[in-house]
Amino acid sequence: MIIVMKRSATDDNIDHAAQQVEKLGLKANVLRGAERTVIAAIGDERVEGVRSLESAPGVDEVMSVLAPYKLASREAHSTTSVVEAGSLSVGGNQIGMIAGPCGVESEEQLMTAARAVKAAGATALRGGAYKPRTSPYSFQGMKTEGLKLLAAAREETGLAIVTEVVAPEDVDLVGEYADVLQIGARNMQNYRLLEACGRSHRAVLLKRGASATLDEMLLAAEYILDGGNSKVMLCERGVRTFESHTRFTLPLATVPYLQEKTHLPVVIDPSHGTGHTSLVPAMCRAAIAAGADGLIVEVHPDPENAKSDGYQSLTCEAFEKVMAECRRVAAAVDRTL
Amino acid sequence: MIIVMKRSATDDNIDHAAQQVEKLGLKANVLRGAERTVIAAIGDERVEGVRSLESAPGVDEVMSVLAPYKLASREAHSTTSVVEAGSLSVGGNQIGMIAGPCGVESEEQLMTAARAVKAAGATALRGGAYKPRTSPYSFQGMKTEGLKLLAAAREETGLAIVTEVVAPEDVDLVGEYADVLQIGARNMQNYRLLEACGRSHRAVLLKRGASATLDEMLLAAEYILDGGNSKVMLCERGVRTFESHTRFTLPLATVPYLQEKTHLPVVIDPSHGTGHTSLVPAMCRAAIAAGADGLIVEVHPDPENAKSDGYQSLTCEAFEKVMAECRRVAAAVDRTL
Amino acid sequence: MIIVMKRSATDDNIDHAAQQVEKLGLKANVLRGAERTVIAAIGDERVEGVRSLESAPGVDEVMSVLAPYKLASREAHSTTSVVEAGSLSVGGNQIGMIAGPCGVESEEQLMTAARAVKAAGATALRGGAYKPRTSPYSFQGMKTEGLKLLAAAREETGLAIVTEVVAPEDVDLVGEYADVLQIGARNMQNYRLLEACGRSHRAVLLKRGASATLDEMLLAAEYILDGGNSKVMLCERGVRTFESHTRFTLPLATVPYLQEKTHLPVVIDPSHGTGHTSLVPAMCRAAIAAGADGLIVEVHPDPENAKSDGYQSLTCEAFEKVMAECRRVAAAVDRTL
Amino acid sequence: MIIVMKRSATDDNIDHAAQQVEKLGLKANVLRGAERTVIAAIGDERVEGVRSLESAPGVDEVMSVLAPYKLASREAHSTTSVVEAGSLSVGGNQIGMIAGPCGVESEEQLMTAARAVKAAGATALRGGAYKPRTSPYSFQGMKTEGLKLLAAAREETGLAIVTEVVAPEDVDLVGEYADVLQIGARNMQNYRLLEACGRSHRAVLLKRGASATLDEMLLAAEYILDGGNSKVMLCERGVRTFESHTRFTLPLATVPYLQEKTHLPVVIDPSHGTGHTSLVPAMCRAAIAAGADGLIVEVHPDPENAKSDGYQSLTCEAFEKVMAECRRVAAAVDRTL
Questions:
Q1: What b/e string do you get for D226-247 counting C-beta neighbours within 10 Å, with b at 16 or more?
Q2: Residue B46, pLDDT score
Q3: I want to staple B240 with a disulfide (CB 3.0 to 4.6 A). Which of A211, A240, B213, C229 is the partner?
Q4: CATH classification code of D74-332
Q5: Fold of B2-63
Q6: For testing the chain C interface, which of A240, A279, A321, A336 should be mutated: the one with the most C CBs within 10 Å?
Q7: What three-state secondary structure class fits C285?
Q8: Of the given ranges (A187-196, B252-261, C21-30), which has the lowest mean pLDDT?
């Protein structure tokens, strides 16, 4: 940690700040420059109250040197972790392909989608039974009934089930039916939920919050890992920016960046990442070329009548075409799909 | 709702889209322009699946006309609602002033802060017993013990207690001790929590998510109102932008905008909104001049040793000075403090 | 254009707004809904003063229906335009690969880079002679001497020269030496410069401003096209967002979006788009998979001693490897490189 | 400057990085921690090529310690500079109030506005003769004729003239008629224009770019100061964020932040900062309460027929009311208006 003193800092200020650093259990190196003095604090800076040092007299800024996460870091585990959950494997040479409708709406809708994505080569089925919705007046999901339909779809197709869990009290129930617990973007910093997922034996797909930094996402993963669950996949689903031609801005540089910093595998969601069906195929191909370990894509048999997210869903036919394109790109980066 | 057709849309596409509109229970007016056809859909567009229309063939874009919230809207209640909770009143002529430490750390810390803010003229005491923290390794709050200290502080000072609740299962417990349930920025779209607060009889301070739109904040409030709790205050606490000299960017235009759109009172949080102690006084004054109904400010007896948020906390002495400044600005806009 | 009236709008307000619409030469269709009245204005809404309608009494909002650009639109030209400039071709089946140093620093530096990128398969050489720099104390470029070195590099390698022009008065001079005039992100809305490039016969590479919308970029292109120069390439180089692990956020969905809206070819700049050398190769591959028509990449023989942008430059060896990877991805999307 | 080495950095990497630091004329202090080594580079880090150090083997990150600007810094001049230009004074106890139409449209429009803002107490008249417009099809301003009308308005009212200059070749001409040269947000990094204004003897109002950091704005000011012109005012006019209920997001914390960092006076533009007339009055009051040295406000005699910016212009009557409100707030912060 580096403490930058103000130009106007007195010797007393500098001594005091150095003492505060030592009080935190770190070693203080005072370096006096022509314009500014800096204090380099050596030791594990991930201790309580470190940033409050900015309130000490004469201190201008406190800059971190160490990454704030540990278990999620690449140093903790030098090869990429492979997360396995039923038919789904993410992190190995084969790219995991999770596809299906935004929400479970009916047996027919779900089974049609499940059969189609299976036939096209998907390795897991997505579908929401609990839908966190911006408006209280929107479709909130089929809940337990939806979970049962998902389990029935697995029964028939063999596809692992990925479905969202929105509250800690639901983790056990959802875990009974699902292979992967999805934590949505709005819940990325719902710490009780993270802790509950940390106690589950189910794999977890953790989505990035719409304005979360990657450090914050890795710290959210750290909550799960620290709870004892090592089966965590990270999912980039786009961030909120000034751009409005897409619903969110999908930063694919997240893929190589995370691969440098963490051993957790990385999944891309081009459906939420763009918000428009017509932009999804290009982003599927690009994600694979960037090195993503998996994709999660919304597929609906009848998008224009979907209860949610129709505008960003592929039809079953379009998904089949996307799979064919993605297979070729995967081969070009020495991966399989 | 307006459906903009693509230039290339055929007559069949237009007919089909119009039929879809009618199927949703709306009346379709087809307007053919030189370059584009638009369909104006008349009726209550807040129905399920409306946006999925973008997937219909030949449709380019669907634009909303009506605000998506109802109970929170200014039309539902033409005067600003006054929320009362113990010594705190927000929404009337007097500006509510909520002050206190980020987290409850000890009896001494809390009581010192409580007495100081009371003496300076605050009308409520803030202090977190449950702390949602980015890192699992950070101080997570004193929990029940913290709640008890808060209640003791109310006992002595008479100040209403504002404290955060982070999970639906805690709402009853926190409500036993607190006068106002605070929903933090990270939980603004934790719908189970919103629903639980909707069933509570305690007043709620709802903070804006760091990248939530104001429509999304109003829809979050709608969940609480729709649950039966009308005592909702909205709190602007800054949004995440490219700016890094402040921790968040505090958009004070939120105040007049919300006053046009909703009857719910508006509170400003200049501590999180700037992230730096030295910027807080100016933003307190500005918030009042902009017409805010309340402020929530972090005050700590010893910021540089605070377990959290020291860098953005005022000392007790600084708070007293800020109060004096704010009283003058309040008078200049015909309010009291 | 759609004019949404306030709920409180009177009949007089509605009549007045409709008259204002007619005064602008548009036809007003008044549609009265249960909650709101909207006026659909039919005709070419790209007329002066249209948005000032929002100031008319009772008007809530004015929403555009038509794209504001014409010559740049896909409707104006249904196939993608191929821009040719010496050895460079962008927009056809072959992907244009523009590579070279950020700035021209010396004959040796430039020639080493030029020979290396030529050998690796680049189709054009980039290099700045005029450097717009954030600080007045930074290296400002070799100017005319730099232009001469670039021309000498073309002489030897046959590579087309892409170099930045920063002021209208330089357009002729730069055009004497260069094959492509690059307009940098900071100058995307320097209209005098756009107009001067519109009068040039040289091809133009127009970079997106760091917070420009795509409509604004297309309107900037429209200035050039409207001036008579049809040889315009658009370049996505990343936008400014809250993300700080990359210098800018590179939204590759720009590629399919622009391909829907415009006939102008699209080039991606993964160097500025990420700001870190280690992230560049993945973004090169992803850009090609997304369908980009060209890439512009910073390559420097000795990045750690570069006068500018060393942190995001590839070495000559790294570039050769990237080219090999990109060739495979290009083949997977039926393009050549 | 702090160089953070990667965990995997070898002793050779560390030695090499330290040598590179010394080569730049700085003194290298190598500090070995448990997890990471950092090199603190002491000396003036504002030298060429510093950031390219990130390309040296084993280097993870380079962090600046010193502000990149010098002449603009508060250290260079400990009291706020007062900029005087005819009737306008900005930076002293009196708040400068610049008001008038977005663009000069006619003699009648300008004179009506000029008389009204003068009567209401404005100390300068704004009005654009050269209009940088997003679309080539929009009103581009009356140019020289507009300048003449502005000079005539000064003749009659005595108000100093603030008007935009969009190109270096216009600086002399505009300076003949105007008292203050305005550099618009889109030109904040048009360095030729900054340099030309640096050579002028006219005062300059420099607007923040819509996605410029405050360091970038101060470096833009540095270009002007370094050119010999010390009469620079900084203007916050809102930044581009995900928020869409306002056209830009107006961060008033810019005021106290800049007052800490620079001696240049700070002006707020609530018209562009909000983009909606109804939000302007509250932001005028808030800006003054925050400590702004001046305001620049769009006022038009007939906003709904304005050729540009009608949606964010106050009528003459509304401006008079805003002035009365602002005077009271100014008094509450011990300023005059």
A1: bbebbbbbbbbbbbbbbbebbb
A2: 81
A3: A211
A4: 3.20.20.70
A5: Alpha-Beta Plaits (3.30.70)
A6: A279
A7: helix
A8: C21-30
